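Kindly review both lines to help learners:
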Amino acid sequence: MAYKETKDKRHLDRFAQIFDYSYSHFVDEENGEWFGYLRKDGSVSMDFKGGPWKGCFHVPRYLMMCEQMLKELLDKKN
């Protein structure tokens, strides 16, 4: 969202950095879904995947919103 509003490339770079980190640390490749909690070093601190602040709809909603924003940005460039 920050890049969409400001067009500051630093925000786009930061998005890519967070995206890469998230997919390399939070995703449970073995059993599916995403871990909810990591330690500062990026290791899994708790292996449960739900709780009062993380429901099964958050990850798909986040991915859908990112896809929509990225499509809008690409459409504006064309």
